[in-house]
C-alpha cells in the first residue's frame, strides 16, 4: 500500500532475507572477512552467530552470490531438532542425493562418493547449516565426522554453522563438543548496528526501490529508531514498515519523530498483549544435552489451554484475514464477470460496416476505472495480510 503512495517499485523493508538489500554494516563487514578467511582455508567449521533478526541469513545469501558455482557446490540445511542419523540423511538430501529408505551407513557412503566426485571435478563442497542451536549433540558430532572425509590429504567438506547466541554458548561450554571446537577455524558473532548506521541502512534500502527523497525524515528519527530497535535489522524493518504505512495513510511527505513514537507505542502495546497471552519461552538448560534441553524448554513453555481457548485462538485474526481475502477474490470475480458481459455488448454493438457506438471511449474508460478500483481494493487486503504475517507470523517462526 505505502509503496504505491510513495512511488516505490517494491516493499523496501520486507522481513524475508533478500541479498539484493544487503547492507554492509560494521559487524557484517567483519563477518564477511571471517567468512572469507575461513573459506580460503577450505576445511573445518566456520561459525556465525547472532540474535534473531541480526541478518545471518541475509549475510549468507549475499555470500552465496559471490561464490563461483563452477568451483563450489553448496548444500543447505535449515534444521529442526535433528538427531545424528537424521542429520546424515538431511545433509545427503541437501546435495541432491537420493537416500530415501536407506540406513545411516548407506547415506554416509552416498555422501562420501559424492564428495570424491566433486573433488575430482575440481569443485569444493560447502555445507551451510542454519538454526544450529536446534541440533542435538549427536547431530553436531555427525557433522564433525563428515569433516573427516578426505581425498589423500585434501579435505572434502567444509561446514558453515549459523546459530543464535545459545549455540555460541553451547559450543563454548559443552565438554562433549571439544573435538568440534578444535575444528572451528573462524567464528564471528553478529552485533547490532550502531546508532550512526540507522540512516544509512534505511536510505540504502529505500534507494534500492526508487526512493528520491519522498518521504523525507526528520533528523531526530534516527537515534529514536536505534533506541527502539537496539539496532537489530529485522526490528528496524518492522518499525519502518509501520512508519511508512502511517505516513501513507496520513498522506505525509515528511515523517516526524512524533509519528515514529506513535508507531513504537502501538507496537509495544501489541507485544504486551502477546506477552499476556503466552508465557515467556524458557532458555535451554545448559546442564542437559542440546536435544533434551530443547525438549524441556518446550514442555515448560507449553500453556495449559482449554478446548474453548484453542477454538478461540484458531478463530483469531488470521482466520478473519483469510475470510477477507476470500471475500475480496469472490467480489473481484463477480465484477470481472460483469465487465466481460459489458465488453461482449460493446463488441456486439458494431454495425455491419464496422462502426462502433459513439460513447465507446466513455464506456471503456468506465470499465478501466472499475478494474483499477478492484485492483486497489484487492491489493489493500493483501497488504494487510502481509503486514499481519510479517508482524506476527514471522516472529513465531523465529
UniProtKB/TrEMBL annotation:
Superkingdom of origin organism: Bacteria
GO molecular function annotation: ATP hydrolysis activity
Domain AAA+ ATPase: 42-216
Pfam families found in the cross-reference section: AAA_22
UniProt cross-references to InterPro entries, sorted A to Z: AAA+_ATPase, AAA_22, ExeA_AAA_ATPase_DNA-bind, P-loop_NTPase, XrtA-assoc_ATPase-like
PANTHER family, alphabetized: GENERAL SECRETION PATHWAY PROTEIN A-RELATED (PTHR35894), PHOSPHORIBULOKINASE _ URIDINE KINASE FAMILY (PTHR35894:SF1)
Cross-referenced NCBIfam families: pepcterm_ATPase
Protein name: AAA family ATPase
Species per Swiss-Prot/TrEMBL record: Qipengyuania aquimaris
Amino acid at each position: 500500500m505505502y509503496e504505491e503512495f510513495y512511488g516505490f517499485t517494491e516493499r523496501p523493508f520486507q522481513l524475508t532475507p533478500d541479498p539484493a538489500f544487503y547492507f554492509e554494516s560494521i559487524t557484517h563487514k567483519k563477518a564477511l572477512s571471517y567468512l572469507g578467511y575461513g573459506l580460503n582455508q577450505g576445511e573445518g567449521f566456520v561459525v556465525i552467530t547472532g540474535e534473531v533478526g541480526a541478518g545471518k541469513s541475509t549475510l549468507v545469501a549475499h555470500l552465496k552470490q559471490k561464490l563461483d558455482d563452477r568451483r563450489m557446490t553448496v548444500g543447505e540445511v535449515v534444521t529442526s531438532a535433528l538427531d545424528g542419523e537424521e542429520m546424515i540423511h538431511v545433509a545427503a538430501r541437501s546435495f541432491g542425493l537420493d537416500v530415501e529408505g536407506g540406513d545411516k551407513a548407506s547415506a554416509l557412503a552416498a555422501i562420501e562418493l559424492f564428495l570424491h566426485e566433486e573433488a575430482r571435478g575440481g569443485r569444493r563442497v560447502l555445507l551451510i547449516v542454519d538454526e544450529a542451536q536446534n541440533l542435538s549433540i549427536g547431530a553436531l558430532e555427525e557433522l564433525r565426522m563428515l569433516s573427516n572425509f578426505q581425498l589423500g590429504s585434501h579435505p572434502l567438506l567444509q561446514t558453515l554453522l549459523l546459530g543464535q547466541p545459545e549455540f555460541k554458548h553451547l559450543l563454548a561450554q559443552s565438554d562433549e563438543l571439544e573435538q568440534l571446537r578444535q575444528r572451528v577455524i573462524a567464528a564471528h558473532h553478529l552485533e547490532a548496528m550502531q546508532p550512526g548506521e540507522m540512516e544509512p541502512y534505511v536510505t540504502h534500502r529505500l534507494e534500492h526501490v526508487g526512493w528520491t527523497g519522498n518521504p523525507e525524515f526528520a533528523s531526530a528519527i534516527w537515534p529514536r529508531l536505534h533506541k527502539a530497535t537496539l539496532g537489530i535489522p529485522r526490528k528496524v524493518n518492522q518499525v519502518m514498515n509501520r512508519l511508512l504505512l502511517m505516513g501513507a495513510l496520513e498522506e505525509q511527505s515528511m515523517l516526524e519523530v512524533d509519528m515514529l513514537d506513535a508507531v513504537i507505542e502501538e507496537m509495544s502495546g501489541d507485544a504486551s498483549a502477546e506477552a499476556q497471552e503466552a508465557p515467556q519461552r524458557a532458555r535451554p538448560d545448559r546442564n542437559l544435552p542440546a536435544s533434551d534441553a530443547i525438549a524441556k524448554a518446550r514442555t515448560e513453555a507449553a500453556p495449559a489451554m482449554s478446548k474453548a481457548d484453542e477454538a478461540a485462538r484458531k478463530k483469531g485474526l488470521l482466520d478473519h484475514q483469510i475470510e477477507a481475502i476470500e471475500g475480496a477474490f469472490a467480489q473481484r470475480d463477480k465484477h470481472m464477470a460483469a465487465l466481460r458481459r459489458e465488453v461482449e455488448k460493446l463488441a456486439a454493438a458494431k454495425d455491419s460496416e464496422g462502426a462502433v457506438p459513439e460513447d465507446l471511449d466513455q464506456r471503456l474508460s468506465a470499465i478501466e476505472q472499475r478494474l483499477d478500483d478492484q485492483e486497489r481494493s484487492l491489493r489493500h487486503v493483501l497488504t494487510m495480510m502481509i503486514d499481519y504475517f510479517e508482524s506476527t507470523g514471522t516472529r513465531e517462526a523465529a
